């Protein structure tokens, strides 16, 4: 038995159990559900050339000094609620009175592939654009569409003082805002409106997210990632607008909105990676579900049982169909002000 951040008893997360031959056989391949597509991709043609020498970046300067605020959409091409919000703000001619404002359409090429009959495929062209932000990777000779595009956008990222990365969720779940562990980013997360929960974690072993770039993890600049709700729902667009306006409103002279502020602060303690292609949850959990008791089996990964390590364990963004090597779920508990103790499981 180990101990959690508040020194309470902590049970093991992954428990091996004997399995029969039949249990080790791969399950039948099941099709993805049919998703309800309630919104369509926005027309971004007026903005794709950009106005500052970087395609897909609309940049504006205020008359008074102030921070450089950056809002990024389309890191994943099939998550276009954020692009819809930025398009609406641009058409309203929202401009900063102080500081600088950059509105970024990161991967419009992926969005062009969007097909309502197969909406998941438009996530990327070559690879996940939210795993390419390691400086060593950006400086390497490696190439892909998303990596090359990240290099083009890097001058904007390296001058950002506050950055909000706009996303949505494939599976149903409570909206949330994610940050890394830096105090500045966690403080920023508490001020983002439209969501009830802010969650701090230390990123992914499989690659570096935009919000984990050293610009935001090692210095005074701050970055958060918004998960505004399920893909392709108008309610997700509404929450995204609330979050963006809460960030840019003061510098742009926009009226305050009535979106909720986060009331719960959670810390991720465990990141569960699927070790086999047989990872299955015992039921279709939604993000934000709180499991009351420690030791509750929530999933099976081949012959292993995945159990909650402590009471009142929150499941953060469970992936109901994880591939081998991909994150299946994160476990989080109420933040006690200490860093997460456990490595990936």
Description:
There is one protein chain. The protein has about 350 residues and is α/β, with parallel strands linked by helices. It has 2 domains: about 100 residues, no CATH class; about 200 residues, Zn peptidases (Aminopeptidase). About 20% of the residues lie in helices and about 25% in strands. It contains 8 helices and 17 strands. The protein has an 11-stranded mixed sheet with strand order 4-6-5-7-10-8-9-11-17-16-13, sandwiched between helices. Strand 5, helix 2 and strand 6 form a beta-alpha-beta unit. Helix 2 crosses helix 8. The protein is globular. InterPro entries: AspA/AstE_fam (IPR050178), AstE_AspA_cat (IPR055438). It comes from Komagataeibacter diospyri. This is Succinylglutamate desuccinylase/Aspartoacylase catalytic domain-containing protein. Keywords: Hydrolase, Metal-binding, Zinc. Its cofactor is Zn(2+).
The appropriate CATH architecture of the largest domain is 3-Layer(aba) Sandwich
At the fourth CATH level, what is the homologous superfamily of the largest domain? Zn peptidases
Arithmetic mean pLDDT: 90
Indicate the percent of residues in helices: 10-25%
N-to-C series of helices and strands? EEEHEEHEHHHEEHEHEHEEEEEEE
Instruction: Name the beta content range.
Output: 25-35%
* Number of structural units classed as domains: 2
N-end to C-end Cα span = 15 Å
Radius of gyration, taken over Cα atoms and rounded to an integer in Å = 20 Å
Number of beta strands: 17
- CATH classification class of the largest domain: Alpha Beta
Strand order of the largest sheet: 4-6-5-7-10-8-9-11-17-16-13
- Globular, elongated, flat, extended or rod-shaped: what is the shape? globular
* Secondary structure category: alpha/beta
Q: Ranges with pLDDT <50 over ≥5 residues?
A: 1-5, 338-343
Q: What profile does the largest beta sheet have?
A: 11 strands, mixed
CATH topology of the largest domain: Aminopeptidase
- The number of distinct helices, counting runs of at least 4 residues, comes to 8
